[in-house]
Amino acid sequence: MGRIEDLDPAGVELVGLLRGLTAGSAARAAAETLLQQRAGPEMALRVIAAFDAFWRQIAVHGRRPLMRHGPGCSCLGADEACLATLVEAASEGAREDALLMACLVVRPDMSPMVVADAAVLGLSLQRLVLRAPRLDPAGERPVPARLMH
């Protein structure tokens, strides 16, 4: 679909959380610890709570299981791009656009709740980007393009 570097900083954060927090308990613990070290425990808890509320709606009311790439992959999958666009639109007040994107992911009757959670998540991610910019340690660099996954 694309490359992570094509996203805005909040979108990069969203995809990182999606990949880290939904890839099993060990990956989740590592993602939570990294976020706490970077942003502090209070902000990390807010961001994680916002993500969990958003993800819970998608997991329960989703049209199908969503696909995601591995934590170190520099590719951007279609579902990841859709979620990033949904969260961006919701947090910027483009409610109708966000509702259309949400209908691609969840049942139409649940899309308003998903958009509400997406707006909260998007604003949390924007605060995170402003207060705790992402570091680029060697271990977090994306896999080179020729190593797709």
From TrEMBL:
It comes from the Bacteria. This is Uncharacterized protein. It comes from Histidinibacterium lentulum.
